[in-house]
Structures are given as structure tokens and as C-alpha cells.
Amino acid sequence: MGTLYLVRHGQASFGADDYDQLSELGQRQCQALGQALAQRGLEPAAVLLGTLRRHQQSWQALAAGLGCGAATIATQAWPGLNEYDSLALLQAIGGEPLPPHDSPEGFKAHFRRLRQALTAWMAGEITPHGMPRYVDFRAGVLQALSHAQSHHVGQAVLVVSSGGPISTAVAHVLGAGAPAAIDLNMRLRNSSLTELVFSAKRMELLAFNTLPHLEAPDRRSWVSYA
User: Fold this and answer.
1) How far apart are CA 185 and CA 203, in angstroms?
2) Residues 44, 74: contact at Cβ < 8 Å?
3) Which are the contacts of 31, defined by CB distance < 8 A and separation ≥ 6?
4) Is residue 7's pLDDT more than 80?
5) How far is the CA of 4 from the CAs of 74, 121, 125, 171, in angstroms?
């Protein structure tokens, strides 16, 4: 059996003009995860990356934690692992202006509206500007899983992506529908680790949304979601 390690990017810049940029905490989260994986003896045969800046920066921090050998690991850019555009989703569903993100009420309102927009997109009820249909988004994620099964049986593959693709992959493996994929998405934490084991014909969930690198009491404040 091979193992697929799905890593959500580190904390990005929620509420800023440019979200697609790791924060200083995000850098620390990913480097710490790399160190934890190095302690396990992980030597991935390949790395699949979304093409967003936060994916690339997360891999660079992970590689620093894994050690100098990470520089020799083959990496492959995989656009199908890119996140959906939350702003386009919110604009497509419309509604009253949301309160500022920097308040608890605004934060909750943002994700409540996002959940509504995701539900409509997955049902094919809205077509957000510049985004693929959900069936095509999902197909891009499943192609990454199929690639691992076709080329890396018996090996470890590291995937650096975002909450949307990771939750889509897990829902697929569990045979769950779109509502479950949304629930999984909303629970994913920054730099979290999800593990799938696979053969050429089967894929199963081993662990979901774990933080082995943030279990120490002095790192509990490092846990973040957005």
C-alpha cells in the first residue's frame, strides 16, 4: 500500500488585500510539520502542489523542516489542487454586505454565507465568475488521486493543497456527498495532515485533519483555521 499525505497550506492572510500569502505563523506551522514528518522518517517519492502562492510557500517551509534531502524530491505542479475562489462564490450568491472580517460576528457571517454559496455551486445553481463548474473542480482533484494510484503504489506521496480539494478528496474516498464535503472543509485546520492509504484499485482514509506538530502545550496557540 502507498500513503498519500494531504497537507492543507499554512495560515494565509485572511481579510487582507492579498490572501494568497503565508503569514509568519503559517511559515512556522509548515516548517514544524516538516520536522514532525522527518522524525517519522518520511521520504516522499513525489510531491504534488497546487499552483497558488500559498501552496508553493507551504512546500518551501515543509521542505526546510524535512531537511536537505527534500531539495532532491521531484515536485509536480497540479492546477486541479487549487482552491475555489471564495470571493467569486460570495459575489455569485449575492445578499446584503457582510460585516468586517475582524470581528467574531463578521467571521461567522462570512463562513455562513460561504457555506450557502458552496451548496449552490455544488448543486449547479450558480456559476461564479472565473471558476470551473463543481463537477470539473472535483474531477481535477480526483485526477490527482488517480495519478498517485497509477504511478506511486507502495510509495509515499505528499500533496500540498487547500481545504476545498482536500475535503473533496476525503468525501470521495468515504463515498459521501456534497454536504459532507462542505462540513469537512469547514473543519480543516491550517497545516493539518490527512492521510490516505492506497493500492492500484482502492483508497481508504487513515487519518483526517491531524496536527502532530502542534500537540505540545507551547504550540496550541499556533492552531488556526483560515
Assistant:
1) 19
2) no
3) 61, 62, 64, 65
4) yes
5) 15, 27, 33, 15
Cα 57 from Cα 190, distance rounded (Å): 13
Q: What is the pLDDT of residue 53?
A: 94
**Structure confidence at residue 14 (pLDDT):** 60
Q: Is there a contact between 103 and 90 (Cβ–Cβ < 8 Å)?
A: no
The owner of cell 520536522 is 35
Residue indicated by cell numbers 503559517? 26
Q: Which domains does the chain have, with CATH numbers?
A: 2-83+133-220 (3.40.50.1240), 85-130 (no CATH)
Alpha-carbon Rg for the chain, nearest whole angstrom, is 17
Nearest to 26 by CA among 218, 168, 214, 176: 214
Residue 13: pLDDT band with limits 50, 70, 90: confident
Spatial CA neighbour of 145 closest among 72, 210, 213, 194? 194
The C-alpha atoms of residue 158 and residue 135 are separated, in whole angstroms, by 24
All three cell numbers of 213: 506538530
> Which cell is 40 given?
517519522
